[in-house]
Structures are given as C-alpha cells and as structure tokens.
Automatic annotation (TrEMBL):
This is D-inositol-3-phosphate glycosyltransferase. Catalyzes the transfer of a N-acetyl-glucosamine moiety to 1D-myo-inositol 3-phosphate to produce 1D-myo-inositol 2-acetamido-2-deoxy-glucopyranoside 3-phosphate in the mycothiol biosynthesis pathway. 1D-myo-inositol 3-phosphate binds at H39, D50, A51, G52, G53, M54, N55, K108, Y141, T165, R185. InterPro entries: Glyco_trans_1 (IPR001296), Glyco_trans_4-like_N (IPR028098), Mycothiol_biosynthesis_MshA (IPR017814). It comes from Streptomyces californicus. HAMAP family: MshA.
Length: 450
C-alpha cells in the first residue's frame, strides 16, 4: 500500500510547494462533485438485485463528504416512474434520477446500450447549471466510468474512478458454473483506466491488480479503505439480546451468510461445509442454525431456488433458514446474533460485510481473496481460508463448535479491529485524492494553455 499512498502524498507535497499559501482557483478541495452510479441506486435496499456493498459505500461516503463541506450529487438510473427527478438523501447529498431505458426489466448486462441515454440525462442536468457547477466527477463501477469519462472531458474537470470489481480479476477466479465477464467490459475498463486522473482502490492488492491487469499508472492509484458505520454496527446490547429479538436459540452455533445469493459469493460452500460438520458430529444438529440472509442476484437469478434445493439434497434443510434481504439496522442485529459470519467469496474487492460483522462484535471466517485479508485479521478477529473446499470451512467452523468461548474472545478482538475503519477516515482520504486530482488537472491545463 505504501508505494501508492506515498506517491499520492508526494503529489500533494508538490502541489503545496507550487502554490504557497494553499491551493488557488480550482486547485483546492472541491465544492461540489458529480457522483455517478448508473446501475444501482443508493436508495435501493442492499442485498436485493444488483444492490450490495457498493450502495452502502456510495451512501456513507457521500454523507461524510457533505459533512466536510463537499456537496455531492449522485446520478443514478430511474427504475420506476414514480421517482422524483431529484431526492435529498441527506443535507448536501442529492440523488438525481436519470431516465435511460425502460424502468423495469433491464438486467445489468443490458445497460451498456443505455449509456448514451444516461449520458444525455447527465448533460441535461448540467446544462441547467451555471458554468463550473461541478468541480470533479467521481464514477463507481465501469458502466459509470464510461459516462464519467465523457462528462469530465466535456466539463473540463478531473475524473476520479473506483472500479469496485474488475472483469479481468473476476474472470481469473470464477466460481464453477459462473458466467465470465464479457470482453466489452474488459475494453470499457481499460478505457476508463487510461482516461481517469485518479483511480481509488480499496486495498493495496486492488491497486496492484489495476497496475498488473490494466497497466494503470501507479502514481495515479490511491488506496482508500472503505469504512463502516460504527454507530450502526456495534456490539450494542450483545449476542443474547439480538438472538432473543430474532428468535434464535441462545446456545446454538450460528454461522451466518449475509449477501447476494450468486455463485461469486459462494453461499453453497457454507452449506456444504455444514453438511461435512454434521457428518463428523451428528450431535451438533440439535444446536446449529444456519441463517442465509439475502436475495438472488446476477447470475444467481438463473436458478433462484438453487440454494434451497442444495440444502435439501445435502440433508440439512432442517437447520438452514432463508431470510429475504433486510435493512441496515436489522442486518446489524443478525451480525450481533451470529456466532460467526462466513464469507467464502471467489472475489471481493474489499468485503464490507466482513468489517460490518466485526464492528458488531462477531468473528469472520472468510476466503483469503481480494481485500478480505485486510478486512479480517487472521487468527485474531477470525480465520482466513485458502481455496473453497467445504472441508476447510468445516474445520474453521468446528473450532467455534468445539470451543464456544472463542466466539466471545474473537468477537471482542473483531470489534476492536473494526474501529480503524470509520467512514470519516475514508471520506477525509477521498477528499485528499480529489484535491490532488484537481491540482494536477489545473497544472496540466495551465501548461497546455501556457
């Protein structure tokens, strides 16, 4: 991580040396940014459709940026005709709904064909404002990056982009039977990397992947860990009270899966691991409950009942409980109630859910992929598992079954670990990235015109 952060730091130092007495003109912290989230609205319920960690990321980041006097306008695709053109999400945060294609029935894979219409809507909103209304564009995910590339160029402002996930990385570690990301996405992401003034990576590993897979300029990549809402996700009144509220037995082993149900997230690995565990120790059946909280998404929509059928085939349908996606406050209760959160994902740019669970005082068993080794302190706040063999996850879960006191001990360490991932820190670091991008952009413009 240090090479990326230090390079960003040196850029800021250079900026201060060039402009003694602070930044001049546009080369300062931005006043207002246009944030782009084409395929998923910050107003949608995480865990449904294509809504997930990125929704939480955008909402929390925008709120915290507004709190440090950076206004945020989030452009997203309208998915129902009843939505107002603009909705205030929080003071200083406006969500603008753009008409682009039919409101319903469009899959994420259909959206590239609507990017022209979406760009038109963004340009219309901008045309109604005074010149220089937006200081910077921050796009999320490659679909938004395509729009951001054009908008930033048209407005003469910097483009900051966050990939969230990358096609080449996902395709390098596909779940069995999952659909590869299409070549069009790879091309689109490559274009965005070349067009962006700054790329924000969640972890040092993601920064390395941008350089390795997409030939990104290391000096343009900044590592900013996502945050967690520490007011919402906290141990609160403890595991026993949360279990009472959710109707869970007090003495049960509760390995929880929370997230979108799709091959990438590998909830099937948890179910197979539980089957292995019960084969080894049949007595555990009377004191284990396995909640799966979330809805089918992406390639998981092809077989929405697939996980229920798998539970029946494995002979564990009696211990698995399926729950639809829940709001953030209720999700925090599920985290508190669980003995352990299980994240066997094939790919995670960060794994926000892992930090949320730990902040609520719950240890995590996770695949050692992507950002999860940053999110989870192996052996301290949980266990990292190499690969996706159910037996390996069964061994990790068996440790909590054999030593129930491990839940409390690791849970306390998990809550302490999560304290360093507050959103205020993430917003402050993101604002620094914006300032550096503005400074570089301003300097290039002067050189070009000088």
């Amino acid at each position: 991580m240090s090479q990326y952060v230090s390079r960003l730091g040196s850029t800021r130092t250079a900026a201060r040396l060039r402009f003694p007495g602070g930044f001049s003109g546009a080369s300062r912290k931005p006043r207002r940014i246009a944030m782009l989230s084409v395929h998923t609205s910050p107003l949608h319920q995480p865990g449904t459709g294509d809504a997930g960690g990125m929704n939480v990321y955008i909402v929390e980041l925008a709120r915290r940026l507004a709190a440090i006097d950076i206004e945020v306008e989030i452009f997203t695709r309208a998915t129902t005709g009843s939505l107002a053109p603009a909705v205030e999400l929080a003071p200083g945060v406006l969500v603008r709904h753009v008409d682009a294609g039919p409101y319903e029935g469009l899959a994420k894979e259909d959206l590239p064909a609507q990017l022209c219409a979406f760009t038109h809507g963004v340009m219309q909103a901008w045309a109604g404002q005074r010149p220089g209304y937006y200081d910077l564009v921050h796009s999320h995910y490659w679909l938004s990056g395509q729009v951001g590339w054009l908008a930033a160029q048209r407005w003469g402002v910097p483009l900051v982009h966050a990939m969230h996930t990358m096609a080449k990385v996902k395709n390098a570690s596909l779940a069995k039977g999952d659909t590869p990301e299409p070549p069009a996405r790879v091309i689109g992401e490559t274009q965005i990397v070349n067009a962006s003034d700054r790329l924000i990576a969640n972890t040092a590993e993601e920064a390395d992947e941008l350089v390795r897979f997409y030939d990104a300029d290391p000096a343009a990549v900044a590592v900013v860990h996502p945050g967690v809402n520490l007011d919402r996700f906290r141990p609160a009144d403890g595991r026993a009270a949360a279990r009472a509220r959710l109707g869970l037995p007090q003495d049960a082993l509760v390995p929880l899966f929370a997230g979108r149900i799709q091959p990438l997230k590998a909830p099937d690995v948890l179910l197979r691991a539980v089957a292995v565990l019960l084969d080894r120790d049949p007595s555990l059946r009377s004191r284990i409950v396995v909640p799966v909280v979330g809805g089918p998404s992406g390639s998981g929509l092809a077989k929405p009942e697939g996980l229920q059928k798998l539970a029946a085939r494995l002979g564990i349908a009696d211990v698995v409980r399926f729950h639809p996606p829940v709001g953030q406050d209720r999700l925090a209760d599920w985290f508190r109630a669980a003995s352990v959160l299980v994240m066997p994902s094939y790919s995670e740019s960060f794994g926000l859910v892992a930090i949320e669970a730990q902040a609520a005082g719950t240890p995590v068993v996770a695949a050692s992929v992507g950002g999860l080794p940053v999110a989870v302190r192996d052996g301290v706040s949980g266990f990292l598992v190499q690969g996706h063999e159910p037996e390996a996850y069964a061994r990790a879960l068996g440790r909590f079954a054999d030593a129930p006191e491990l839940v409390g001990r690791m849970g306390a360490a998990a809550a302490a670990h999560a304290q360093s991932f507050g959103w205020d820190t993430a917003a402050s670091a993101t604002a620094d990235v914006y300032t550096a991008a503005l400074c570089d952009h301003r300097r290039r413009a002067r050189t070009h015109h000088g």
